[in-house]
Amino acid sequence: MKKWLGLVLILAGAALLAIIAYLIIEPSRPDNAVSAQGPRLEVDQTTVDYGQVKFNTPIESVFTLRNVGDAPLKIEQTPEVELVEGC
Fold it and tell me: Which of 35, 36, 53, 58 would bridge 40 by S-S if both were Cys, CB 3.0 to 4.6 A apart?
């Protein structure tokens, strides 16, 4: 009986290690390793930090958007931009 219990514990431990390894490796795969189905938007940067800027000082940011999917991409509404102050 103890031999079976030991074997079950070893197999359960191996399965748990395999699951943990998968969860660690999967997020680190590059995005282009996953085949895109339909349109998929890629943005070159998602945040911009200008540090401390005086009030009413004009600031301009340029973002490059690219469709990396396998179907045409349509942007039907005006994109929303959030200005976070004091972070």
Answer: 36
In a domain, 35, yes or no: yes
Distance, in Å, from the CA atom of 35 to the CA atom of 60, rounded to the nearest integer, reads 34
Domain count, the chain: 1
Closest CA to 70 of 18, 17, 34: 34
pLDDT digits (tens, 9 = 90+) for 25-35: 766 555 555 55
CB burial readout 35-48, b (16+ within 10 A) else e: eeeeeeeeeeeeee
Angle of CA points 65, 68, 72, to nearest 5°: 90
Does residue 27 lie within any of the structural domains? yes
Whether this model's pTM surpasses 0.70? no
Q: Is 76 exposed, middle or buried (0-12, 13-18, 19+ CB in 10 A)?
A: exposed
